[in-house]
Specification:
Radius of gyration: 41 Å
Helix content: 25-40%
Structural class: alpha/beta
Number of strands: 37
CATH class of one domain: Mainly Alpha
Number of helices: 31
CATH topology of one domain: Isoleucyl-tRNA Synthetase, Domain 1
Shape: elongated
């Protein structure tokens, strides 16, 4: 018999095709045994042979493989950037935007236009990705999305690049000869080159944006140099002029000495590492009223400190703060007998004392002076007449000012209104004359400054000469090099000055209050940025909209020829409309610099407007609009005109730097022209910085090219990275190792989940789309509830623009929830049940719903992966018919959720305490003993209704729940220790991996341990307090581990519950088909369980 058994086993191992022949041979052998042995002996031998020989027959054949369903899919489990390119070429992907239902509610994502200058950087990529996520989410939740991309084609960056190109062309044309460059070129020629350059940059950037797969129509875009856009800009100015919001005045502005133009606040960057020569300067006070008996009758000097000594020539006042306390410092020097009395703020006396000691002075505080006592004081001016100036030699006043900080400088501030915003408004407030600036547009002293200073550069020899003049007249007390904060122009990285200049302004004082009121009620993310924008708008009463450059839209105003300072602007709606007609006729606004007056300002038009001017006596203005007023008007491209208040954009999404730029400009212009904000919602994200937190720049060599990232990792991983880092209150740190590790892992987990679902749903005929969710198994109903919770959470995050939270929730669900808890548990049913069994249909129903929900939840962030997955298995509805994320409120079941989550927590606890023995648990019978009656009552219903699922959940042979009222704690174990073999040691990890969270809102307080079915959140988190274990010495070779839990019930102090897991090796045997340990009927059916016998009997194949 042994020889026969071995022979048959060997043959079967080599060829399963002989199965039928071998079975026939077995029955022949069976007859032979009955001939030569007694009947009882034959039955004993034949049973042994049949069990072993046929088991080997099944193992050696493919019967089990052909009847076990194993999910198989061709969907790649790794992300391939090359596949994204083919997906983008697919019409289904490319035409998604164009095939939207026009009857849906519109949702407008307005694109703030980037400069058409140079290739895109990672900040551009992040910005466009976040806008695309918002657009795609809106589209799949029932909206018709309008996402029109735009470009800002004017401005200094483009002009500087064109200047370089012209210089390079001149250099090449002069190669080999004298390098004499043309210093000027015709406006028309320059603007033609600038326009061509801008178009080339749009094409360059558009190619990069197309690689990102944005949801937009690339044939429909806006540019700020388009004739229709420029015409609306001219009309907008005319309307503002008619509202008397436009004025021209001599006011301080940031002035670029390099580019000879005013600079917008948004283009200014204050840098703390600027170094200047600072000076302490003495101004003698005239007849000070607070000399006491202890103060000798000596001159009293107001000591001021400045980092811009070149402005001292135009000092008009000394500012103080009446809320501060000042003091008189008496100083003397023994070696030369010099004595001085200084007036400084009380808060700076120690700093002054240190300086005096450095200079060899002794000092004492002699008199304390309240700040209000300085009102009415006057002092003697300096430098008047010293440099040949013709300034007024009259005494100068002390002026009270809130901006003076007693702890900075000396608490007394030198005031020069031509070179400071606060200085200017202080002088105007006190009705004092400002006067003309003595510094020209190149940063050199004008001839009015006198022969000594005229022509000297303020940052070098001009400063030195000013200090020399002060020293000659004993007004200079001390100088030193000082590092401090100073404004720089971001376009040139060069310092600017604040200087009064004749400019065109928009009066924002009448607009800002309305903006602030509207901003208080609109949506902001993050919320903290709302006040930032409000403060920015409130900080300036006027906006300089004029620039002294060539590449831009000209301000449509006229002047009389004899108006040398160009102070009186001439503008009329009919004249502006004539300019617009010429614009359409000439195609571009370049005609402003080329056509004759007779064409641009016909006399009959002036007469029609009833303006008392002659064409030949008028000239056109030469200033152009600030680029922020260009782009700040872009909201009109999404509305039905300049005055349409009904069609606000739904979302403005930009970086935090746009608070001073596009957000402010758009808000002011929209409120002024149509009485509302440009958008209903503001979203602000951080900057892309390197791993050291430094802003990316070419000079630092830390710039990351998005095209390289797309090539290495693909677009969807970068989209996921952008979403996970779009917190708004933080910058976005770029780390390559993050793309290679966590981001790549998350992408692959999402892909693997889709791959499994596509394979599992391959026999889609088994999916009953009409299956009532109440007819599902209890465990499937529980996971339907989990799908509801997951999808509704992601939905809420998308609605609130918390893309980082949405991405994290998706990662948590596919990684820590769906796969380890649900898929692992239902694998046995999915693989081994009869294909059309009721519970297998129940599982497939949940898997099908999970597939469709995951498609929708991940689509806004990873659209390429979703389109790729849909190519292998379509969703239940076409993408353009999606109206929500696919979940239903009817799936929610809080009571079942509480019951099952508690069991899942016990499962995680079981895995934790049995970690070293988990491999042997499949053939073990396990009983969970608990000592709480109400908790037992809650859980026993589920355990009894789904016994086989419980074994799969806990990965055991059998699983039962038992109530044990009296459960003793082993000796030596306390509530806050862990005991293993009665050896107490601290528990460093005191929480289970999952928990339920707080109690449901609206429920009344309950006593600790009250786990009623009516309160679905009563258990809360299970906190592991202690564990212990003991093996051997018990009957039936039983082992157990136990412990104590704190069931929080959503409260800080919950009830302590004791538990035990008792386990022993099972008497059951392994089914050779499903590999579960169960009861086998070996006398009839070949070491398979009843379920597998039924499947084999039907002859089904996978």
């Amino acid at each position: 018999l042994c020889v026969i058994h071995h022979l048959i086993s060997s043959v079967l191992a080599q060829s399963s095709s002989l199965q039928s022949l071998l079975l026939l041979y077995y029955y022949t052998l069976h007859i032979y045994l009955y001939i030569y042995y007694t009947p009882n002996k034959c039955r004993q031998i034949s049973g042994m042979v049949r069990a072993n020989v046929l088991t080997e027959a099944l193992k050696g054949s493919d019967i089990t493989r052909r009847t076990v369903f194993v999910p198989r899919s061709q969907f790649p489990h790794r992300h391939d950037p090359k596949v994204e390119l083919s997906i983008q070429e697919d019409t289904k992907f490319a035409h998604t935007y164009l095939e939207q239902d026009p009857n849906r509610k519109p949702y407008v994502v307005h694109d703030g236009p980037p400069f058409a200058n140079g290739p895109i950087h990672l900040g551009h990529a992040v910005n466009k990705i976040l806008k695309d996520i918002a657009a795609r989410y809106a589209m799949i939740t029932g909206h018709k999305v309008e996402f029109i991309t735009g470009w800002d084609c004017h401005g200094l960056p483009i002009e500087l690049q064109v200047n370089k190109m012209i210089e390079e062309q001149q250099r090449q044309s002069n190669y080999g000869g004298s390098l004499v460059f043309e210093t000027t070129t015709s406006p028309e020629h320059f603007r033609t080159k600038a326009r061509a350059y801008a178009k080339s940059q749009i094409d360059l950037q558009m190619a990069a944006f197309k690689r990102m797969g944005l949801l937009t129509d690339w044939n429909k875009r806006y540019t700020t140099d388009d004739p229709s856009y420029v015409a609306n800009q001219l009309r907008a100015f005319s309307q503002l002029f008619e509202q008397k919001l436009i004025f021209k005045d001599l006011m301080p502005v940031h002035w670029s000495l390099v580019n000879k133009t005013s600079v917008a606040d948004a283009d200014i960057d204050y840098r703390s590492n600027h170094i200047s020569k600072s000076a302490y300067v003495l101004y003698e006070i005239i007849d000070p009223p607070f000399f006491g008996a202890d103060v000798p009758k000596q001159p009293l000097y107001a000591l001021i400190w400045t980092t811009t000594p070149w402005t001292l020539l135009e000092n008009k006042a000394i500012a103080f703060n009446k809320q501060e306390t000042y003091c008189i410092v008496k100083a003397w020097r023994a070696q030369d007998g010099e004595k001085k009395n200084f007036l400084v703020s009380f808060d700076t006396k120690h700093k002054l004392g240190d300086l005096l000691q450095r200079l060899g002075y002794q000092y004492e505080m002699s008199t304390y002076v309240p700040g209000r006592s300085l009102t009415g004081l006057k002092y003697k001016p300096l430098l008047d007449g010293l440099a040949g100036t013709k300034q007024d030699n009259s005494a100068r006043p002390f002026l009270d000012a809130d901006f003076v900080d007693g702890a900075k400088g000396t608490g007394l501030v030198h005031t020069a209104p031509n070179y400071g915003f606060e200085d200017y408004y202080l002088i105007k407030k006190n009705s004092l004359a400002v006067g003309q600036s003595m510094v020209d547009y190149d940063g050199k002293f004008r001839c009015e400054a006198g022969d000594i200073l005229a022509g000297k550069y303020i940052f070098s020899d001009g400063t030195q000469e000013t200090l020399s003049l002060l020293d000659q007249h004993q007004a200079l007390f001390f100088t030193e090099m000082t590092q401090h904060s100073y404004p720089y122009e971001t376009r040139t990285n060069q310092p600017v000055i604040i200087r009064t200049s004749q400019q065109t302004f928009l009066d924002t004082s009448r607009i800002v209050p309305r903006c602030i009121k509207a901003l208080e009620s609109c949506s902001f993310f993050p919320e903290s940025r709302r006040q930032h924008l409000i403060n920015t708008l409130a900080s300036s009463p006027s906006w300089c909209i004029s620039r002294q450059r060539l590449w831009g839209t000209p301000i449509p105003v006229l002047y009389e020829k004899n108006d040398t300072n160009k102070q009186k602007m001439i503008c009329h709606p009919l004249i502006v409309e004539h300019f617009c007609k010429l614009l359409y006729k000439k195609r571009f606004i370049d005609y402003w610099w080329t056509v004759d007056n007779s064409e641009i300002i016909p006399q009959e038009l002036l007469d029609k407007c009833k303006l008392p001017y002659k064409t030949e006596n008028l000239v056109r203005g030469t200033d152009i609009f600030d680029v922020w007023s260009d782009s700040g008007l872009s909201w009109h491209t999404t509305s039905n005109g300049l005055n349409d208040a009904k069609n606000q954009a739904d979302l403005y999404l930009e970086g935090t730097d746009q608070i001073r730029g596009w957000f402010s400009a758009s808000s002011l212009l929209s409120m002024a022209l149509r009485g509302c904000l440009p958008t209903k919602r503001f979203f602000l994200h951080g900057f892309a910085v390197d791993k050291n937190g430094r802003k990316m720049s070419k000079s630092l060599g830390n710039v990351v090219d998005p095209a390289e990232l797309f090539k290495l990792y693909g677009v969807d991983p970068i989209r996921l990275w952008a979403a996970k880092n779009a917190g708004g209150n933080r910058d976005i740190v770029v780390r390559h190792d993050e793309f290679r590790s966590s981001i790549n892992d998350t992408i692959n987990k999402i892909r693997n989940t889709f791959k499994y679902l596509i394979g599992a749903l391959a026999d889609h005929d088994a999916v009953d789309g009409k299956l009532d969710h109440t007819k599902l198994t209890l465990f499937d109903q529980y996971y339907l509830n989990k799908l509801y919770r997951f999808a509704s959470t992601v939905d809420e995050h998308y609605k609130n623009y918390r893309y980082d939270s949405a991405a994290n929730e998706i990662n948590r669900f596919v990684t820590s929830d769906f796969s380890p808890n649900y898929i692992t548990t239902i694998k046995d049913i999915l693989y081994c049940d009869e294909l059309n069994s009721a519970r297998r249909k129940s599982c497939l129903t949940v898997l099908n719903l999970a597939y469709n929900i995951l498609l929708r939840c991940t689509y806004p962030i990873t659209p390429h992966i979703v389109h790729e997955a849909a190519g292998y298995m379509r969703s239940a509805e076409p993408l353009n018919e999606w109206k929500d994320l696919g979940y239903k409120a009817a799936w929610k079941n809080d009571v079942l959720h509480d019951q099952m989550e508690t069991l899942v927590q016990f499962k995680n606890l079981f895995i934790r305490v049995m970690s070293s023995k988990l491999g042997n648990m499949r053939n073990s019978d396990v009983v969970l003993n608990i000592n709480d009656k109400k908790l037992y009552k809650k859980l026993i219903k589920v355990c009894n209704s789904e016994p086989e699922l419980m074994t799969e959940l806990f990965r055991t042979c059998t699983f039962n729940l038992s109530l044990r009222d009296k459960m003793a704690v082993p000796e030596g174990v306390t509530e806050r220790t862990v005991c293993d073999g009665y050896t107490a040691q601290p528990d460093t990890t005191n929480r289970t991996p999952e928990y339920l969270g707080a109690a449901a809102p609206g429920k009344k307080d309950q006593k600790d341990g009250d786990f009623s079915d009516e309160d679905p959140e009563s258990v809360g988190s299970l906190e592991l307090l202690t564990t212990w274990s003991k093996s051997g010495g018990l009957e039936n070779n039983e082992h157990w581990v136990g412990g104590q839990l704190m069931a929080s019930g959503g409260r800080p102090n919950g009830k302590v519950i004791r538990f035990e897991f008792s386990y022993r090796k099972s008497a059951n045997r392994k089914c050779i088909r499903c590999r579960r340990y169960t009861v086998l009927d070996i006398s009839e059916h070949m070491n398979v369980c009843d379920r597998c016998r039924a499947v084999l009997t039907t002859g089904q194949t996978s």
